[in-house]
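Workshop exercise sheet. Pairs work together: one partner reads the sequence aloud, the other fills in the structure field after running the prediction. Swap roles for the next sheet.
Pair: D.N. / O.F.
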Amino acid sequence: MMNRKALMAAVLVMAPAWPGMAHATKLGAEVIGMFPQNAGEFAYADLRQARALSWFPQLKEQMLPERFRQFERFLASAGIDPNSQVEELAWAMVPTAPANGAAQNAAPASEEVVGVALGTFRPESAEAYFKAQKLATVKVRNYSLFAFGGGSGAENLFFFFIDSNTAAFGQRKELEKLIAVRYGEERGLSNNPELAPLIAQANGSGVVWAVLSSAYARLAMQQLVPETAQFPQAQQLVAKLRALTIEITAGTSVQANFLAVCATPDDANTFAALLQAGLMYQRYQVANSNPELAALLDQARIAPVGERLDVRLTLTDDQVVGLIRRNTFAMHL
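Structure field:
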C-alpha cells in the first residue's frame, strides 16, 4: 500500500509559480470514462507544464507511481522518449479486496494500478519492436497487450496502445476492464456516484489534482495528520469521511486546496476544530527539525463549508524548493 502522506505532500508541491500560465489543462471525459468504475483513487498530472521545472526529474521520482516509471523504461526500450512524447498522465488505484474481517468500505488490503498516458506515439513501429523481442503478448479484442516481464502472475504489468495518442498500462485484470468499458460491456468511472461528481469538479482545476474515495480519504487523513489520532472524536469523524479532493493551481504563488467531504455540516465544523489542533501540534513537533514544513503548516487555512471542509495552503517558490531539498516528500511503498 502506498504511503498516502507522502503522496499528498508530493502533490502539494507539484505546481510552483509559473508566471503567465494561461489555464489548467482539462482531461477529456472520454479518458476519465474508460477507467474502471470501482477505482478508489483517481489522479491526473499535466506533464507538459511540470517539465518546465528544473528539478522536476527528482520530484517525479517521489510522486508518480513506481509502475509508471517501469512503463517509461519499457517505452524507452522501443525508442519512444517518454520525456517528450508523454504529455499527460492519468492513473487510478483500484482496491482488490478489503482486509480480512474488515468492513466493505474499509481500506483495501491490496490494490492494482491502471494508467493512461496521452501524447504522440507510433504504435506500428513500437509493436514491431516488441514482437521482434518476442515479448509475452496477450490478445484482447483488437489490442495486443505486451508484458513488461514474463507475462505470468497477478502483479505482472502490461501495456498497449489504444491509438496513436493514447497508451495504457497496468495489471492485466484492470486493462481488460478498461477495454470492456470501451466496448460498453462494463460501466466506467463516470458511473461511480461517489467519485464522478468530484472528478468533474476537480478536472481542469490545476496542473495536478486527485480524488479519493471514502476508504482512501480516511487512509490519507490518518497519514497526513496522524496527531488527530490522539482525539477519539477525530477518529470517529475520519471514519465517516466520504471523499477527499486535492487541487493545485499556480499563479504568483502555489495554491493547494484540500476538500474533505464529511457526513454532515456538524461533522465538518467539529472536524475543522480538531484538525486545526492537530496541525498546530505537528507544527511545534517539526519546528526545529523541518522549519519549512512548520512554515507551511502556519499558513494553513481551514474552513468548514456545509458538509465540506476546505483546507487551503499558499507557498512561495523558495518554500517549495527548500522542502524538496530536505527530501520531505520522498515516496515509500
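Discussion prompt: The mean pLDDT is 79. What would you look at next?
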